[in-house]
Write a structure and sequence with these properties.
The structure is a homodimer of 319-residue chains.
Chain A: E1 4-10, E2 15-21, E3 26-32, H1 40-57, E4 68-72, E5 75-77, E6 82-85, H2 97-102, E7 109-113, H3 114-125, E8 134-139, E9 143-149, E10 152-153, H4 185-189, H5 194-203, H6 223-231, H7 235-259, E11 263-267, H8 275-289, E12 298-301, H9 308-315
Parallel strand pairs in A: 1-4, 4-7, 8-11, 11-12
Antiparallel strand pairs in A: 1-2, 2-3, 5-6, 8-9, 9-10
Helix pairs in contact in A: 3-9, 5-7, 6-7, 7-8
């Protein structure tokens, strides 16, 4: 009989619960957006009820699952299943989330960082299939990552390994990360850097072809807006995208020197910028790595995409 | 019966061969400096003869050893035992060194990068004892490193993992590494950066108390000279040492975010700068890592020191 997996992706404004088959295909999904109004206990109750509901409507018992996998943004102490810090979810600081959900179920509940979950999903069901080692990097509002070593997630001492987004690549940068440091990869090259980067280009006198309304709030400058700019050949949008690609390429170079992996998979919203962005990432990497590459390294884009969070969470039950 | 190990450390100008006991203590050593004049075959013959000689004079048979461990600077394809590139040894490019030495012996010969060997030695016999995971960083003319994950060296696809020295931390730096890139950790914070860093301070109008002769060749500015400066409270020497410590601290912070190890061990000549240097490294690390440290991380200095290369090479036979 084929195995059904269950994954939970707990985000800041939405929570997805899905049943996934052994090939990583979504069988059913419950998606809720109302959990932000609830306190910790309320949100946990909702998660537990929705898991029970999705099992019921698919004629499944708890015992049909190998476990329940949960992914959540933030620093997670994996061993204990505790959220140490999270900027996405109100409350939940030093919160034993795994235990709280576990109290509603008999099968094992696993909690990991959302980027780790996505990395494992990519390894099991996506571009990582057939590899024993890989690094996954997700680039959206922030930058998260997960490391697969010898077919397993490498989590480090606490469970926070793979935080390549916090690697400092430009110590004197004007760009400050949410962590408080200057010039993290995340500060320079993801969603949260875009308003500053775009505004800087305008300050340098560059003209954008994007018809932004005069009262446009620059803090709303996003990957989507820049994608429109890219599609209409806006030079400012293209430069910002290229700058971001440069830093990601440099980050990948540092990861290459650190871990020498055969595969790096990129996920997250900004990969929608497409070809020119990816080309900038790759060309930067190859310019830096040159004759220090002795075996082919593959740099590719996630192919589990949209539901990567919940599929990855489900994959954790196969680790 | 206690095991005797044999290690070979092949450097640019010297070659050490040693017998080491199970606690990492040197039992006997043959040290030769004349191998630079020989071609590849000549040097290999010399290594093989010296191994046989050290066995003979200690009344040992080949079969008393678990193997022969060799450490060598450069990029090594571990699986095949091939030196891919090395800047220290003339010749030896794409050279199957392991096989060449193996042809003289029946017991297994192991070849790895010298920093990997030292890392494993530190793990087996030094500050890493009792840890399952650690990162070793050796800071001398260059910067090398080795990663221990789950009691074994993590080598990556080719065998070149752990090249944290080539991690770029200052992309616009004036300092260029031997690899050709700007602002690698190695370019900014090791022996080869010292002449530039010292000269820059002088150009900024800073006065050194070091009594350098008027014809002093700045390219000879070394860790030892700066140590003298440090001991005589020379402000320029102190600033250069502090700048190097800053970059090493930043590099360790990046390693911490990447691998979240419980232990980082520092080795190499520049650690002889002592307390103030180590304090700068640590204070930089802790200022950057702040509230992102959830479990204690130990940052300490190698305690196998002087013979780390050959002891580490011997340790490889225990992996």
């Amino acid at each position: 009989m084929s195995k059904t997996l269950c994954g939970v992706d707990i985000g800041g404004t939405k929570c997805s619960i899905a049943l996934v088959d052994e090939k990583g295909q979504i069988l059913d999904k419950i998606y809720s957006c109302d959990h932000v109004d609830k306190n910790e206990e309320g949100r946990i109750k909702m998660v537990a009820e929705n898991i029970k509901e999705i099992l019921r409507r698919n004629d499944l018992q708890e015992s049909d699952l190998p476990g329940i996998g949960m992914g959540c943004a933030g620093h997670i102490r994996f061993r204990d299943g505790v959220i140490l810090t999270t900027s996405n979810l109100k409350g939940f600081k030093n919160y034993p989330l795994r235990e709280a959900v576990q109290s509603h179920f008999k099968i094992p509940v696993i909690l990991d960082n959302d980027a780790n979950a996505q990395a494992f999903g990519e390894y099991k069901f996506g571009a990582g299939q057939g590899f024993d080692d890989m690094v996954f990097l997700t680039i959206s509002t922030g930058i998260g990552a997960g490391i697969i070593i010898n077919k397993k997630l490498y989590r480090g001492m606490t469970g926070t390994a793979g935080e390549f987004g916090h690697m400092i690549v430009e110590p004197d940068s004007e760009l400050t990360c949410t962590c408080g440091n200057r010039g993290c990869l995340m500060a320079c090259a993801c969603g949260m850097a875009l308003p500053y980067l775009f505004e800087q280009k305008l300050k340098e006198g560059k003209k954008s072809r994007l018809n932004l309304p005069p009262d446009f709030n620059m803090s709303r400058m996003s990957g989507q807006v820049l994608k429109q700019g890219l599609d209409m050949d806006d030079p400012v949008s293209k430069e910002v995208i290229s700058d971001c690609g440069y830093y990601v390429g440099l980050g990948i170079y540092n990861i290459f020197q650190a871990l020498n992996p055969p595969l790096i998979v990129l996920g997250g919203g900004l990969t929608n910028w497409g070809e020119s962005y990816l080309n900038k990432i790759k060309s930067t990497f190859y310019e830096l790595a040159r004759d220090m590459i002795f075996d082919p390294i593959e740099i590719t884009v996630s192919n589990i995409a949209a539901d990567a969070g919940v599929i990855g969470a489900a994959a954790l039950t196969l680790e």
